[in-house]
Structures are given as C-alpha cells and as structure tokens.
Amino acid sequence: MGKGAKGKGRKSGKKSEKKSGKKAGAIASAVSAEEVKEQATEDEQIAEHEAEAVEEIKDVVNALRVGKGFVLADVDTRGTPGFTGDKLAGKAALKACETELSDLLERLFAESTAGGRRSVLLVVQGMDTSGKGGIMRHVISVNPQGVKATAFKAPTKEELAHDFLWRIEKALPDAGELGVFDRSHYEDVLVVRVHDLVPEAVWSKRYAQINAFERRAIAAGTTVVKVMMHISKDEQGERLMERLDRPDKYYKYNPGDVDERSHWGAYMEAYQAVLDKTSTVGAPWHVVPADRKWYARLAVQQLLLETLRGLNLQWPQADFDVAAEKKRLAAS
Questions:
Q1: Are 176 and 105 spatial neighbours (Cβ–Cβ below 8 Å)?
Q2: What is the DSSP string of 287-319?
Q3: What order do you get walking across the sheet with 119-126 strand by strand?
Q4: Predicted confidence (pLDDT) per residue in 17-58, tens digit
Q5: Which segments within the chain are labelled E, that is strand?
Q6: CA-to-CA separations, 170 to 22, 100, 141, 220, 283, in angstroms, rounded
Q7: Which of 249, 227, 222 lies closest to 238 in space, CA to CA?
Q8: Which of 137, 166, 235, 271 fits 291 for a cystine, CB–CB 3.0-4.6 Å?
Q9: Using N-to-C axis directions, what is the helix angle for 293-310 and 98-113, rounded to 10°?
Q10: CA pair distance 204, 185, nearest whole angstrom
C-alpha cells in the first residue's frame, strides 16, 4: 500500500472517529435528558408523600442496635428494620427529616460558640460498595457546617511509627462538630486480622484498647455512634459490575476489591468479633442492612437524629443587651 493510500486511510479513520464521537455524545445527551426527566418526576412524587412517609418510621434505632447474642449472619441485608414503607416512602421520609437534622447540627455548632464542649462522632464501617460515601452525599450534606469528615486509608509511614490509635485521636471532632469516620480504628482489628498484618497477640489486645479509647472520648464530651453497613456478597458483586459497565463509575473501581471478595468469610468472622467485643453500653454498634441504598441512608439519618435529639440542644443566649443593640442598629 502506498503513502497516498495510507494517508487516505488515516483521514477516513478520523472522520469515522468524529462520527462515532458525535453519535456517542448524542446518545449520552439523550440518556442524560431522560435521567433528568425521571428524577424530576420522582422528586415531585417524593414531595407529595413526605408527610405520610414519616409515619412509616418506627423504632429504627432499637431495631438496629447490637445486643447480647447478636448474630451477624442472621441479618437480612435487604431488610428494612424499623421502617414499614417502600422505596418511594423511604426517600420521602429521608427528605422530610432533612430540615430537623440540619437544625440540630446547627444547634450543636452554635452551642460550642458559647463554650459548649459536646460533639458527635459517627463511625461508618462496611465492606467496599456498602454505601459509606453515599451517607456523606445524601445524609450529612444537608448541613456541612461543623462537619469534620475523615476517610482512613492505609496508614502512612509516619502513622505506622505510632500506636494505631494515634491518627484516630488526631481526627476526633472538636466541640460543636459532627465527626464522620469513613472506616476507622476498627480497620486494625478487621483488615489487619484477615490479612495477618500483625501477630494475633497484637491485634487481639486492641478490642480492649478501642473500648478504653471510646470511653475517654465519651468522657470528654463526644457521643459515639457506630454503624456497620452490612451488604451481601451478591449485592456487592452487582455494584462492582455496575462500575465496570459505566465509564462515569470507573474512577470508583479498584481491582483490589475483587481480591478482597475471596476473604468474605474471614471478614464476616472479624466483624462478628468486633460486634461481640466492642458493642458497649456507652457506644453500641448498629448494623444497617445495606442492600437497599435508600433504606441504609434513612437508617443512618434516624440514628443521628435520635442521638442529637437526646442531647437536648438549645440555642445559646445572647451575651449582649438585645434591646440596646436594636436601638444602636436602628440609629446607625
């Protein structure tokens, strides 16, 4: 084939690529437009059902709390404990409670401006794809003011040079803050145990160390809320496949997640040990069935609401003469 033929082939290829690109773009736009339309319809339905959906919320907190004799394997990961509605009602209930959650978080922050020392720590654990990130986007985002979110990755060299709780203590919320741990100190009795990263003689002592650490945090004014997002292996497989099927989800995919699936049984044993040894009166665990994303988000929201309501948060009193300030402002 001569140079001219090669050149013609390249030009033809470029035209073909352009056409293909335009076609893909058109399809993507059509899909996007359809998704927007569907979302708008759903939003309207949710708005119509907010009031009645709240009535479907029962005792979510007690339904999820880990007590004596709790068996993780008995949990239905598609269940909706403490909620009697369907998916639409669940989304409507979540929306209906956003204002109260936002208000309570602002009260917590406001209290600290007057010297209050209280804070809340939400610990979120779970296997990959269990919905930990969705909690931040769909629950916590209603009021990001005063939120201190920390995603714990594999420890750095500096962190490994210290006790395993060193980096955790540094990330604890300050007064008035809601701290959110995406993974946490529990990785040091989960992944460490499953992969034999340290001797059993080392990690087996950490349950007691964790309990002592949480007692200190509670004594200092932090209310600890611990959540395990419990997803089934089948559901995880479907969510991972979705990430491979959608280019806009590639960034979420980690090939290592597939390798971890071969250790599923070991992880469930490690989680059972965590629940047995560290669900305390002051900091109990709550296991949230996570195969239904809408329910998991609603459940965590309700756990936070119940916690914040229990703090009986009040707006701080003015430390100035309100009437005098009104006069000064009017005259200015």
A1: no
A2: EEE-SSHHHHHHHHHHHHHHHHHHTT--PPPPS
A3: 147-151, 178-182, 119-126, 222-230, 285-289
A4: 455 445 545 554 556 777 666 666 667 667 767 878 999 999
A5: 119-126, 147-151, 178-182, 222-230, 285-289
A6: 50, 29, 23, 14, 19
A7: 249
A8: 235
A9: 40
A10: 14
